Protein 1
Amino acid sequence: MKSSFRFCFGPWNIGEGADPYGPPVRRARPFAWKLAQMRRLGFQAMMFHDDDAVPEVDLKTSAQVEREARALKRRLDAEGLVAEMVAPRLWFSPRTIDGAYTSNDPKARRYAIERSLRAMEIAHILGTKLIVLWLAREGTYLRESKDCLRAMDLLVDAMNRMLAHDPSARLAIEPKPNEPMDLAYLPTVGHALALAGRTSDPYRVGCVVESAHAVLAGLDPSEEMAFAMGFGKLWSVHLNDQNGLKFDQDKPFGSANLRSAFNQARVLVAQNYGARGECVCFDVHPFRPTKDEHALKHLANSRKTFLRLAAKARTFDERRAARLIAARDYQDLDQMVLEHLLGS
Ligand code: XUL
Ligand code: MN
């Protein structure tokens, strides 16, 4: 199916299935193989952590980082692909065990900022202005271990450093309420945008909404997207699904709640998402029992479901819906949605 959307995924979305209780269950695919699958699957853009783009980035000199990033850019160009974003992976190093920008250890905070500035240089070379900040360890396991007010100051300081480093870059906060921390400092779009307002350039701090993260916060993903759009701040989406308050599942889009997925597609279509170059990204993982030969189906299927639901959004009888709303006949409005999704 042809579409005007630009679709995107990251190298981590073709995973080997390791979880906290067991090892990998599928073969590891080299980066070149992953890259080669993109166009075949109908994807135009790849999202990167800094060390997806330049492996072991902490061990390399600036000159090496620059050389490798330039080589990657040439590979992307050769495949006709673009980099959608770069995200500093701040949660892996032993140095950020207690958080990155909000760590109680000043050395960890310095490392986090330096690494973020490096990620911005990689993004610049790859030709994207979008820096995604998933603030994995910015939070607490126990309330008394950090001071929330101070953490907000530290987050603002770190973002100001990044904004000053590259005046053309935009920071997109990816809110998530928990995992790996019990309590994250920026659990929702509202928190992210409120903090954006305290930075030195609020117009360059927006957000990415991931469906599963909104569900984990007990919120409706389409309303999180709409809220961000109301501020002109929905700069990316990570579509996937989540079966309620469980571990972070990253299920295929629409897998757990088709109606919620419809409402996400509907708000994106209604607001002409993508017209300013935004990508539709799928942050999805295969179910662990998935065989090697089926290890791309979660991506192809998520894209297919999104396109089917975008078509459903376009054929939804808005005039009839408006009449039912005017009559306050929400019973039939509800049924109308269900029958539209069920098809004839
Ligand atoms: C974590 C998550 C990340 C970010 C990028 O839940 O979604 O993969 O999207 O760092
Ligand atoms: Mn994500």
Protein 2
Amino acid sequence: MQVIILPTPNDVAQYAANSVVDVVTENTNSILGLATGSTPIALYDELVSRCRAGLLSFKNTKTFNLDEYIGISECHEQSYRAFMNRHLFNLVDINSANTYVPLADSLDPEVLARNAKAYESEIERSGGIDLQILGIGVNGHIGFNEPTSSFASRTRIKTLSKSTVEANKRFFTKGEFQPHLAITMGIGTILESRAILLMATGKGKAQAVKDMIEGPLTSMCPASVLQQHKKSIVILDEEAASLLSLKEYYLWCEEKRQQLHEGNLL
Ligand code: F6R
């Protein structure tokens, strides 16, 4: 796991944007895995700016989002489809037919299970994800894989934890129905991505970040599974990194990695 600690959330977004640009420009038909939530908004803003400045094109890119709520329609402002349209898809040159978000606008469990299976097949048919962007929940979840989710899980219906429902309350108006179910990519699905980039910012994420990087490999902290991925990069701001015991070591490693990159081995 590569741990990168940067001064501010904006630096985190810039670093993540550079990684996305690399993947999109290096692969003729790049496949990105995307996340919603507050954390990646600054990344999407940056990608939109670069696209508008002609520095980046999504014309040949396909995207797969991690998750979608069950119980609200795609047109609902808080659906993850609407979120992605608003923050990225409608603002860049991507072909909307190449943007996939799990189809969750049914209340029939069999239809939802079929949609989840079809999502897996679509990822596979596309050749797999080149770079998966992740955020992290305060309880260590990735996608909507809550604590105790199997590391082998595939895209499926998942019940959100009460703490996740509580954390996401801020997006819904008082008294409005708030979903407690979602279709989410599984941890096994996420792990098949060729590279994973997790972003975390703010003090509120510091404990989850510590558990993910320095805690034991445990389904009680689903993000700890990234310790086992061959190419996982975690980008943190100072606040999110504030509880790490080996913080100085991660900073030192990045300094040495940079020197190595410049051909300076000693
Ligand atoms: C959303 C998702 C979630 C979020 C996590 C953090 O697609 O997959 O795992 O990344 O809940 O959310 P924020 O960034 O709002 O703190």
